[in-house]
Structure formats: structure tokens, C-alpha cells
Write a structure and sequence with these properties.
By secondary structure, the protein is mainly alpha-helical. The chain is 56% helix and 0% strand. It is elongated and about 50 Å long.
Length: 68
């Protein structure tokens, strides 16, 4: 996997970007409610990279299972 993008989005990812951006995850973590456009883009780019890594892992697992 690729460093911090090992298939986990971390705390913000457990309810998706909108929940993290609006503080509605219900965990009491006190996330900021309003993110700038730049911050939203950065979050989406990080999420995109995490999804790519997850897909890579799924494809690897499928290859391994098909060899068995």
C-alpha cells in the first residue's frame, strides 16, 4: 500500500466528506463546520488516492484468490 493511504481515511472518512465538513458524525470530535474550497478539493484528492489504493488491494486479493 501507499503510506498513509493504506485503505483507511482516518477519522474524517468514517462518515464521508460531508459529515466531516459539517460536524454531523455524532462522535463529539468538534470538526470544523465550514471548509474552504481549497480544503474540500484537498480532502477529495486524498479520498481519491485512498480509493485508488483500496482498488489496488482488491485487485491484488482477487489475483491471489484466483491462483488458489
Amino acid at each position: 500500500m501507499h503510506g498513509r493511504h493504506s485503505g483507511q481515511m482516518g477519522h474524517k472518512g468514517h462518515q464521508g466528506m460531508d459529515a466531516a465538513a459539517h460536524g454531523t458524525c455524532g462522535c463529539g470530535c468538534g470538526e470544523r463546520r465550514f471548509l474552504s474550497k481549497k480544503e474540500k478539493i484537498e480532502m477529495l484528492e486524498e479520498y481519491k488516492e485512498a480509493l485508488k489504493c483500496e482498488l489496488e488491494g482488491v485487485e491484488e486479493k482477487l489475483r491471489d484468490l484466483s491462483k488458489e
